[in-house]
Batch of 2 targets.
Target 1
Amino acid sequence: MKGRSSAPVVVIGAGLTGLSAARHLGRRCVVFEAEDAPGGLARSHRIDGYTFDRTGHWLHLKDKRIRRSLLRLTDWMEVERVSKAFTYDHQTEYPFQVHLHGHRPDILLDCLVGLWKAHDQRRSRRSIHTFEDFIYEHFGEGIARHFLLPYNEKLWGVPAKHMTTDWCQRFFPATPVEQILAGIVGAKLPQMGYNVAFLYPKNGGIGLLAQAMADRLPKGVLSLSSPVERIDYKKKQLMVNGQWTAYSGIISTIPLPELIARLENPPKRVLQAVEKLTWTQVHYLDVATKRPVRQSYHWVYVPERKYPFYRAGVYSNVAPHMAPKGGSSLYVELSSRATPSAATIKDVVAGMKAIGLISSARDVLFAKPQSIEYAYVIYDQNHQTTRRFLLSFLASKGIHSTGRYGSWEYNSMEDSILAGRNAAASYLPNKQ
Ligand SMILES: Cc1cc2nc3c(=O)[nH]c(=O)nc-3n(C[C@H](O)[C@H](O)[C@H](O)COP(=O)(O)OP(=O)(O)OC[C@H]3O[C@@H](n4cnc5c(N)ncnc54)[C@H](O)[C@@H]3O)c2cc1C
């Protein structure tokens, strides 16, 4: 790099984690991004006047410093979540477990009896090892069977019994029994969960955030269409587009298996460990309609296996500028991990009609399949030990692997921005 006396810190990937690290490092770093635009998962694109994110990306901010700094980057609207659950031909508020009122008596009875039994047997039960144990323990058999188990299996692509509870505390808190009972008798409850309100750009998709972060980097720091191909950690150099470049340190935000695959001659134990990492791919559809959808919610959870999707959301119900006047832009997240065929898309559209989202298949202008290869890291029994081992091996070689897929965890955009800030701090003279 021109004018630089020593090798830079290299940031691999210009998703939110990489961009955040680069904001703090400035000219000390160079960012190599494989794609031709920044943002990673937080990118948006437009098709025929309809704007789509890489499924719903709603920004929840708790950290005051990050909030102050992001609010300055673009204009935001603050939105209160409107989310529903659709099951047994019935639409309720979300979360399902605290809005049981109005369901069929047999379902209510199942949920009540299950809850009572779970409560009654709590002291005698064996300890909780799996996500399935956690669901039975806190919600009982009925809520598990009617919503939580089928929904989560559709989302994660593996049964809850194959997962641990390591991620639950924050993203899946246990619900007090009193609240479930209140929901059964129809008492009005305050909105629940970590995502009750969120920010969204006033003038575009979530990609505006990443673009605004990228625009503020010093000239020459961000290098697009520059995939990192190989890393020689012994010589402290990496290859980009066939050229070797020296570095002083690496902040990598690409998925752990992709990073390890790029190392020159890593130890066998590292290659064996990476084989143990599991994750799930997600296929989804960008859907545009010619007429406004029939629902005003932002998104809906659909647990029943007969529908080929588990969640559908309407960007233009959050932000009308996401679709041309009179139309709607949506995402529909598919349960199957197989590439969607024309027949699957037809079934999805039929399902959208069946849950009352659209009036007719003819309303759909297009439904384009998209996919995210590394969507969800699976918290199986090997997850913690394997990721710890790999991260500490990489750290010992001067590679800080961080972000949602770099540190191999379930996180949010805010977490990624924080992770980038923290990674940068270790390369700054006065640690913040
Ligand atoms: C379906 C889904 C919905 C989500 N919804 C929300 C939400 O509503 N709210 C929320 O807060 N969070 C949400 N998230 C989480 C959010 O997307 C992530 O926390 C965040 O975007 C991760 O950013 P990152 O920079 O760590 O990773 P990424 O966005 O994956 O960025 C990594 C970057 O590395 C680049 N790259 C890959 N390989 C190379 C290479 N060899 N060389 C150079 N560059 C490379 C990629 O192109 C990419 O730009 C969601 C995630 C998913 C999967």
Target 2
Amino acid sequence: MTRITFYKGLKEIGGTFVAVETEKAVCMFDFGFSVSGRCDDRVRLRQESLVEDYVRIGMLPAADGIYAEKPAKNLGLKSYGQNTKEHFFFISHMHIDHMGGLGMLDDEVPVYMSEDSLRLYRRLCAMGDIQQRGHERCIGIPYGQTFKRGDIAVEVLRIDHDVIGASGARITTPDGTIVYTGDYRFHGFYPGASKEFGETCQGADVLITEGVSVSFGDVDMLSLTAPEEDIRTEEQLQQEMSQACRENDGLLIINPYNRNVERLHRLIGTFEAEGRALVMDPVQADYVAEFYPDDDIYVYEKTLNGRNVPEWFKVVTPEKLRENPGNYVLQLDYQDLYAILDLSDVISRYYHMDGAPLGSYEESYHKLTAFLEYLGVPYQYCGLGGHSRPYYLKLMVDTVKPGTLIPLHSFRPEQVNSDQIGQRILPEEGQTVVLERGECRLEA
Ligand SMILES: [Zn+2]
Ligand SMILES: [Zn+2]
């Protein structure tokens, strides 16, 4: 018998935590923080009881077998060291809501992820772009390969999402196959990867899928027969940026999400073809250089923030930008917003493309737009996000045609549906679905 316990992240976007338990092993995924309205980063974190505090406020799951001895004892949980079965994690991708908690695990817990995710994770740790500390015992698996622990086999499969290294998994236990999509889209650089994921996983006993895009309005998924037309693709964004270079004489500012490394790499080429150099902050530059060492890397002197950069990076001064603003595009993280103050009279436009603050539901977003308006810098939104629109969610489910569909990672998972499935289960937090000989039932 395989037991699939849904701890967290069912009716919210973040903090998905599911445990697949067999006779010999426990495979868990993912390990980000729950989005919690109870937390305020203005309240000081208590380093000596970080794990306990996070668990007690519901940011991390109260689960046995994953925490170190002291926090586990304080929380009345079994520690990792007390396990009799093999406990391990699969992490689908490097978004905070899927991996932010890794540093809270016991040091010995094996954490598997795609090879590219691990490569990025190592850089996030090196750049201090993670919560607290990094987890050491991580294992990178190339796309398409399978690893085994106890009686569980996990095949790591590429899927398209707005972060490098994104993957889903096909988990095989003695009782059947469970597919976990992680987050995905069909409008990225590799729509074929998402399609292939669905085809590879066809006929799975269980499909656990994200449902972010049906979170915010009424959607009747069964009636969807054609793709939504208002989807900007990664390729389109590149074209829009070429166009922007031609239409503007001055400096362009972009605010992308820095873990979507491939977009930055592609933008470097796009801008280069238009006679402009992309100038980055040292963190963004580090991520691009890690994956694309042949790219010309320019960094901005005023956003170095005391960091040393490799000698082969070319440092660009504000004077250079002011002399020839039409020869450059500046990538600017929200944290470095005041860099605009030195340049506002030579800036043509600010392009917001999936960087923080993400949208109008964040307080900072209004501050950003008010700031730009005050300085007379035109703002343009040109983001595209990482989640499939509803038609494509349905396409994934229809392609896999699972015996049991379990949607989560959505404010309204009940809106994820398909007529190509055996049954659908909508578990509540803490509930377990039992898988036996390929058949699922909610445990009473
Ligand atoms: Zn994601
Ligand atoms: Zn997510």
